[in-house]
Amino acid sequence: MTTAMVYNWPEDQWETFLPFAERWSNSYLQFCQGFPHKLYVCVCGTGSLPECLKRLNPRVIRYLGSGFDIGMSQHAAKHISEDLMITGTSRHYFYRANPIARMAEVFEKYPDSLLCTMTSYEACPIGPFSFPNAHIRTAYWGISPARFRRYPYDISNRERGFLFESGEWAVNRWFDACGLRTIQVTWDSAHDDKRAWARIPNRFRNGDQSSSLVYDKHSEAYSKMNPAQKREVEKRTWGLRIQIRPI
To answer: Most CB within 10 Å of its CB: which of 152, 195, 205, 239?
Structure first.
């Protein structure tokens, strides 16, 4: 099995995202070496890579659309031949060894599954999909690029990204319709039952969040909250009870 890692670089917003690219590249060098994979950088724009990404010697894919991270990942899938494509937002970063290897391990066991590492039951900002709603956070996730090329909708703007994560075009519901698994991946478990997401200890916005394979701006924000704020955010994300009704 072959694996690709895609980092999305918004070159058109260089000053805003350069600190995140530097943090990502440092964490990639520290925690992602030793497992065979091919590195791609999908660049939104026509300019050059910053030095922090150039030093990684990636294959560069150019994207000239306005679909943000998900649109960039969708475009990248057209140029990738590996079995598994791992991708995410520009703000995610690694904090523990072998996050790419862990994704590949689960994908090899469950081929052609949708892999997600941060989930919630949050409502979609657009449309009728209210809480509890299976919400795939695309901070760090995996999919077969061949499967992604069959996804029937073009993610060409921010609003369509919401629909992709948790709305009418939700990628996890598309996988359901295809008879395929959506798997929540942690360091030591894999869950294809969406009702089990809220029972994973230290998941996104719960405990110390150490079950997550990566961190991002939202996990960072939660970690800095006081206990009362954390309870409120966790309730909004997961509900008052661990045992909620099936999705």
So the answer is: 205
